[in-house]
Amino acid sequence: MINQTVETYWRQGRKIKQTSSGWLSGNAVCCTHRSDTQDKRGRGGLKMSDSGWSYSCFNCGYTASFVLGRNLTFKARKLLEWMNVPTEEIERINLESLKHKSIEGLLGDRQEIINRLQNIEFEDRDLPAETQPLNESATKYLQNRCVLLDYPFLYKTMPRPGIVIPFTHNNQVVGHTTRFMDDRTPRYIQDIQPGYVFGTDLQKSNWQTAIVVEGVFDALSINGLAVLHAEINDAQTRLIRSLGRDVIVVPDQDVAGMRLVDRAVELGWAVSMPEWPADVKDVNDAVIRLGRLGTVLTIMQARETSRIKIELRKKQLVKRLRT
Fold it and tell me: Per CATH, the architecture of 136-322 is what?
């Protein structure tokens, strides 16, 4: 019944050709919603199976899938919306799907997620000696950086005054970084384990999107994930994917940040490079200048998955950086 309903909406208003491999090809519905050129060459395809369906667009690259017995994913819901499936019908499809899931199956899926997260482990680490609660100057520094003040920051005076930011995973301390407040070099010293991603403990269970940034203050500005450099290694990729979220990578708007763009494209993740003012170089700068809500809105509006459009935007930024 679910497949029949989805196929009916897919066929409405478009000429469908069935390929020898079972794809129902027609003009894609996703492209214009993702700021891409309208498909007029039948480059969208829907393929049915006993366990669900898959969608793929060879115009803008959008993909989505559905498995009977599971919740509709964020991407599958968006696709159905673009196919003009009413909201109440989408919810009916989701409810009918879950009726096919046994209690044992639901518990099995939950345990699978728990196992994946538990398999990613880091050693417990000690924080630096002689740390203390934030004093007035440290609190003012953090307020000026517009970060979340409810994070368990600490303060230290030796060898230079600095903010200590604990690195946690599953609410255990697994490292730290110290940001010195005098802006002398080095500005940071840190104890970081291979494959660590900052901010996993900041994520809420009902969030559907994870915003990946470079720096710890960028993450603390918007409850994002920080890879702590301009690269994403394989272990970090596994950790981020274990969250099961739609991923948007927001690089620093400098030459080093463009490496992060290439890696995100390689991983098939969305990239956002908002048109911020010229003096705004990263997410934390943007929050200071535009506010938290304004920054997140610009990130979501600039979200892009088209390789061509990402490359064009990247070239624009590099050209601006070199002038």
Answer: 3-Layer(aba) Sandwich (3.40)
